[in-house]
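Per your request, structure below.
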């Protein structure tokens, strides 16, 4: 890739779910002090940037995605001064910092929503959110049939009779993005943090901001997989065309600041074409490629997703960004360790089904990492992925905290299983997550058998997932073929993916049931598992110099 290309075209960005990364003050919850103390770890891992989940002042109804004040850090995590120090120190370590911004909604404790409640129906204060009269004779039915992503209706009625919209929890009222004040406020928030040195933002629910002005009922539900190519549906609140105006304005704000500031959109779009619309020269820089994350461990599925993504993003000059796991989805060793019955559909929950073969899941996860890191563009690593952490599927019900658990009437356990605090060192919980003498246990209990998965236990063990990531990330930094650019598919039998990158690099992934002889090469750079007699075992991957 060209040495002058902006960093975000090829960056490996490590996702820090702040609550669960490292606890600096011993209260059982991760914080900014914890992140600062682990910067040397992140540097030695070899990542280019960190994305930090929301750290703003929040009542934590959705662990920070309910923001009460975008210009304050929640005391649970630290202070604005500490955030500034973290940004500075990260930069000294050569690591960029990308906070999360949550424009679709605020907390119900945000000053604007409090003012809207106080001012009553018909007031200008209510226009910054989505308030409506109900349906039915006495207005006792919600204004339409929209449902909350966390279960139940997307509307809550106030004692004064009006309803307000919340696509997520009732504590997360949706903002009205047709309102100029909302737009001005967010541009000002972006400037507030850009001027404190952040290198970009991850945009939460980037596809949700604009609602159909008439708030019509939902279109008919689609069947997940009828074998037809996926079509875009004109949806009343997801991925509406007018949302791009917002991001054109944001791009202008980012461009006011020196250095390459950049945005990554969390946009769940129906098709690669729709996703590509977010990333344009006058729009956002990148968008998470969730099609890759949702693909099953299947050579055809993966290849189609890779080709379609590269083609569509390439057509608008944007790099792809690959992602396997995050704080909202079942960790991938636990997904890959199961037979997947159907293609996973955006905006729907994936439920692990059937018995788990974790050894298989981890073998595939190791191979998937080498595939992902060999693909053109950037990549995301979710904290703990580099340790091979599985989903914690047996959290006791009384510790579950994700609002999904309550909102689904206890039918969906929610996302806590991928948010369990990171094991750093030692033989038992809190495994170094909290300092010696901590006053509280980690906010979610860590499994008793994680001693072998700690950073300490894996460091220096060449067979560990951690050392695989470390080696891969360091090779990726140095190898001129990796990062931004293009790929060529090489001839390979069914079930084997072989891709070439120039100059002189090949990645082979064996998704078949038979061993596959490594193609011609000058040296083996890295393999996801032991290779004997030149044969790549099923569910293994190799990086070759050719
Ligand atoms: C995004 C976040 C998720 C959060 C939701 C509401 O999908 O990734 O964690 O609950 O938005 O803000």
């Amino acid at each position: 890739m060209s040495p002058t290309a902006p960093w975000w075209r090829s960056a490996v960005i490590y996702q820090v779910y702040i609550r669960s990364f490292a606890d600096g003050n011993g209260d059982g919850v991760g914080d900014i002090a914890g992140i600062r103390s682990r910067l040397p770890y992140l540097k030695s891992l070899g990542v280019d940037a960190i994305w930090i989940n929301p750290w703003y002042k929040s009542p934590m109804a959705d662990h920070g995605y309910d923001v009460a004040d975008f210009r304050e850090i929640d005391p649970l995590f630290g202070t604005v001064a500490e955030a500034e120090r973290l940004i500075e120190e990260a930069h000294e370590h050569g690591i960029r910092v990308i906070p999360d911004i949550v424009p679709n909604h605020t907390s119900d404790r945000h000053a604007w929503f409090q003012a809207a409640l106080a001012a009553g129906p018909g007031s200008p204060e209510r226009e910054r959110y989505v308030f409506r009269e109900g349906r039915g004779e006495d207005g006792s039915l919600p204004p339409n049939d929209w449902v909350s992503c966390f279960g139940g209706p997307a509307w809550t009625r106030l004692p004064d009779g009006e309803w307000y919209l919340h696509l997520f929890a009732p504590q997360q009222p949706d903002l009205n993005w047709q309102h100029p004040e909302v737009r001005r406020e967010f541009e000002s928030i972006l400037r507030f943090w850009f001027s404190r040195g952040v290198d970009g933002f991850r945009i939460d629910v980037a596809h949700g901001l604009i609602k159909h002005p008439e708030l019509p009922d939902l279109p008919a539900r689609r069947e997940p997989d009828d074998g037809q190519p996926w079509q875009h549906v004109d949806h009343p609140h997801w991925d509406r065309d007018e949302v791009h105006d917002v991001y054109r304005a944001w791009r202008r704000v980012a461009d006011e600041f020196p250095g390459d500031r950049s945005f990554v959109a969390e946009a769940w779009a129906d098709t690669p074409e729709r996703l590509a619309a977010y990333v344009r020269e006058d729009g956002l820089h990148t968008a998470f490629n969730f099609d890759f994350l949702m693909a099953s461990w299947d050579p055809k599925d993966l290849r189609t997703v890779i080709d379609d993504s590269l083609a569509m993003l390439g057509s608008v000059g944007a790099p792809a960004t690959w992602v396997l796991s995050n704080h909202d989805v079942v960790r991938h060793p636990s997904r890959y360790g199961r037979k997947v019955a159907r293609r996973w559909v955006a905006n729907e929950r994936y439920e692990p089904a059937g018995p788990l073969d974790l050894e298989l899941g981890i073998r595939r996860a190791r191979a998937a990492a080498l595939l992902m890191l060999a693909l053109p563009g950037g990549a995301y690593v979710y904290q703990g992925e580099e340790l091979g952490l599985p989903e914690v599927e047996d959290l006791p019900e009384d510790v579950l905290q994700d609002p999904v658990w309550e909102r689904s009437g206890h039918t969906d356990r929610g996302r806590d299983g991928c948010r369990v605090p990171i094991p750093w060192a030692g033989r038992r919980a809190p495994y170094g997550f909290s300092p010696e003498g901590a006053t509280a246990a980690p906010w979610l209990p860590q499994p008793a058998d994680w001693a072998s998965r700690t950073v300490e236990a894996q460091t220096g063990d060449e067979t560990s997932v951690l050392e695989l990531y470390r080696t891969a990330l360091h090779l990726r930094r140095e190898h001129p073929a990796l990062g931004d650019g293009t790929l060529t598919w090489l001839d390979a039998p069914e079930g084997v993916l072989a891709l070439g990158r120039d100059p002189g690099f090949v990645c082979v992934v064996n998704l078949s049931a038979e061993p596959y002889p490594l193609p011609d090469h000058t040296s083996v750079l890295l393999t996801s598992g032991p290779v004997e007699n030149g044969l790549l075992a099923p569910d293994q991957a190799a990086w070759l110099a050719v």
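The first helix runs from residue 18 to 21.

Regards,
D.
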